[in-house]
Write a structure and sequence with these properties.
Layout (H helix, E strand, L loop, with lengths): L5 E6 L2 H12 L4 E3 L6 E6 L2 E7 L9 E6 L2 H5 L7 E8 L2 E7 L5 E6 L7
Parallel strand pairs: 1-4, 5-8
Antiparallel strand pairs: 2-3, 3-4, 6-7, 7-8
């Protein structure tokens, strides 16, 4: 089965986008200048997330889903203006919705922690 390994997000303000994803993902982004324009990248699980600048008007990606082990900790460093629904218990587990600085919808789900046997 194929798996996703690369996701590129373009933004008019990659610095604000980098700060947002660094805080939310608790992952530092490395600056790259070796190919193309200056951009940032970070390994997020199995996916390499890259942030590129753009000057074109384009519709942002509709949405991205993330799973986290602790929803409250993941939301702790996020500016409240980006949080739409915080930690709702649903039949599918504890979930939150956000938007990133470019208006992309983010769906965050807390993974259940199964006791080790």
């Amino acid at each position: 089965m194929p798996s996703l390994t690369l996701l590129i997000l373009r933004s008019h303000d990659i610095e604000t986008l980098r700060e947002f994803y660094t805080s939310f993902l608790d992952t530092p982004f490395e600056e790259h200048t070796d190919h193309g324009p200056r951009h940032y990248g970070a390994q997020v699980g199995e996916v390499y997330l890259e942030l590129y600048p753009t000057k074109q008007e384009q519709r942002p990606l509709d949405g991205i889903g993330f799973s986290v082990s602790n929803l409250e900790a993941a939301l702790a460093n996020i500016d409240q203006k980006y949080i739409r629904h915080r930690g709702e218990d649903t039949p599918f587990g504890k979930q939150a919705t956000l938007t990133d600085p470019d208006g992309r919808f983010l769906y965050i789900k807390e993974t259940s922690q199964e006791p080790e046997k």
